[in-house]
Amino acid sequence: MRLEKLLGDLGDPANPTGAAAILAADERGEMLAAGEAVLDEYCLNAEFVPTALGGRLDDLERLVEVMRTVYGRDPVLGLGYGASSLISGVLLWTAGSAVQKEMAAKRLLSGERIAVAVHELAHGNDMAGMELAATPAADGWLLNGRKEVVTNIQRAQAVVVFARTDPKPGPRSHTLMFVERAPGDGTTDLPRFATSGMRGLQLGGLAYDDTPAVALGPVGSGLEQALRALQVTRTVLPAMATGVLDTGLRLAITHLSRRKLYGGTAIDLPHVRSVLAGVFADLLRAEAISAAGTRALHVVPGSTAVYSSAVKFAVSKLVLDGMDRLAELLGAHFYLREGPVALFQKLLRDLAPVGFGHIARAACQMSLLPQLPLLARRSWRTEAEPTGLFRGELPELRFDRLALHAAGQDPLAASLVAALQDNGIPRDVRATAEADLADLTGLAEICARLPIAELGVDAPSRYYDLVTRYVGLLVRISCLQLWRHSADGFLADPAWLSSPDALLAELLDRHRDHRSFGLSGRQLA
Amino acid sequence: MQDVRTWLIQRVATYLRRDADGIDTSQPLTEYGLDSLTALAISTDIEDEFGLELDPALTWDHPSIDALATVLTAMIEEKAS
After folding, report:
1. How far apart are the CA of B32 and the nearest CA of chain A, in angstroms?
2. CA B13 – CA A87 distance, rounded (Å)
């Protein structure tokens, strides 16, 4: 892939976008300037702009794959150059007028940054609680208040701001606003927020004092637009993060292949091999559910209020746990900031926000729990064959078809029954799938009868555990379907679903051949 | 056919864990602490009970029991005709 070639060999000490340079920038707490220059040359922003507006965005799977290359090189570049403009982009493509969308597209395509300011320290993920206020003015609105811990807010030429347009509590009290930065606009930059990972990320804040803004969409539509548009980023941002685990796995194998202890090489030890195979399996699982969720945004956007939260909840944990297990294998070496494995500790620190950034895992559980009864009643005891979720050409991405909730429509869970009618399933895979079906049926019984008034923020732990069970099922179903719909190669042989030996052999082959460990197995520089 | 308003008051009382008598049907339900996600859940309950297909944000745009009862009654009558 072109971007991979532009970034060059990670291990080359002379490469301005190689590991040594990346680590040096991290030590200084700066964005990697040479990395940003490469992304400028590649015009990464074009990946965030729909083709209808002059960009390259028409296939979210392609977007994820491109961004995995970036995140796998430097997650700070991924988030700091890319993702923040992607988030503002999806809000604009969902809420903006035709004129506003064209203007935003032009800005991004010319290399400008658009930041997105939703977050206030006092309110976390509680969007309906946000306080920064917008009051009507002669030709638009005036903003007063603060936004904090926002990526690129200081160096962005424009900002999408989530503002309160009605002091009453409720879901119609906020509106998305668009602010162009200009001298004398009443904005004051807040001091930069320092973090233990993503150290180069420009996290800032702004205080607004009668700052002019224009509304995106009807007054009071802010929460609705955000809850719909952000399903895209809630899905694709964790999906991109698998690139980080991919690189971590590569670094670990390289190190363990050279590490001589107790008269042998570390990678020959059965325990080491077992852990590596397990982490590889988890990377594939993470990308399988990511693929289903990403394709769902095109194929069944009415259901992604469920799948986006499921992807975030599942993928973040899979990649974080995987990285932790690799750290254990590396022993003291995972902790060193110098030496051949030094990049690992940076990636480990940079990965942490995948659990809480953009939306926290707990908030995803909160959003899924009240939807379980309807999913159980309307989908979990039905049959579906949503082939489009697993393979084939993707239909047009329609931001206007994203919905506030899934209305119980869950073709992914409903696909398990039909899948079991496939005679080509080997015995051990079938046994797992049948156990999964029994689990789904049992879960349906419980969830159909959950007391609806007890599924809010103060729900008991045992109800939240149901969400964990459900999401685990979706991951396993995604893997089964990925195998069934794979035409050739490693994924088409069901061994990867259950055989540590098959996984290990593939893992070491790809390491030797310098190919990535995710679903695409792409060639690395 | 069940009275929409009566059904709504009972249903909302369950969600709010309150006595039905204590609910002012002209007040936005957010005044009683109903959060935006629960409001969506009420919308799907209404669909199941009355056989309607609703815009998910209906309870957001008709935030009191009186307002909801009015719009739902109209929808049910239209469906029957």
Report:
1. 10
2. 38
